[in-house]
Specification:
Helix content is 12%, strand content 42%. It is mainly beta and 149 residues long. The termini are far apart.
């Protein structure tokens, strides 16, 4: 009986570790770093390739280690708009890019390709945001059961 109980617990532990799979997908790019520069006259686009049939959810996040160089001036709120999927053109979130923060922009059902536009929320302002994406800093799609914080 004791043995059966222990075996059951081991089986449960193994099951839960399998379901806790998480893929942190970086944007599609010809190379790294990916340089973003969002100004009143210039938006950027970001696109993710997601493994087919990913269970999801797919969470779009922006994460920067403390002290990471993010250049930002003026009215720097950025609107994130879907470029494809069920609602192209829909605003999916707004954020300010800041070192030392992780921001969940939105959560979606996963698709094979997921693309977004980044543009200043106030294009009549004097804001600008620029940063370089490297491993561990920038925009990512968290696929599956990811602990974000
Ligand atoms: C950004 O989103 C806000 C809504 O949160 C909207 O009022 C504003 O017009 C948007 N900016 C642009 C340039 O679409």
């Amino acid at each position: 009986m004791q043995f059966a109980t222990a075996a059951t617990l081991i089986a449960l532990a193994a099951t839960s570790s399998v379901s806790a799979t998480c893929l942190e997908q970086a944007p599609s790019a010809l190379g790294f770093p990916i340089n973003y520069d969002i100004t009143p006259s210039r938006s950027d686009a970001v696109s993710f390739q997601i493994p087919p049939n990913s269970a999801g959810p797919c969470q779009l996040v922006a994460k920067f280690p403390a002290g990471y160089p993010v250049f930002s001036v003026g009215d720097d709120l950025v609107n994130v708009t879907a470029l494809d999927g069920p609602a192209p053109g829909a605003l999916v979130g707004s954020l300010r890019f800041r070192a030392g923060t992780t921001t969940v922009i939105n959560s979606f059902g996963c698709r094979d390709v997921m693309a977004y536009e980044l543009a200043l929320a106030n294009p009549d302002g004097n804001g600008e945001v620029s940063f370089s994406e490297i491993q561990g800093a920038g925009l990512f799609m968290e696929v599956g059961d990811c602990t974000i914080f």
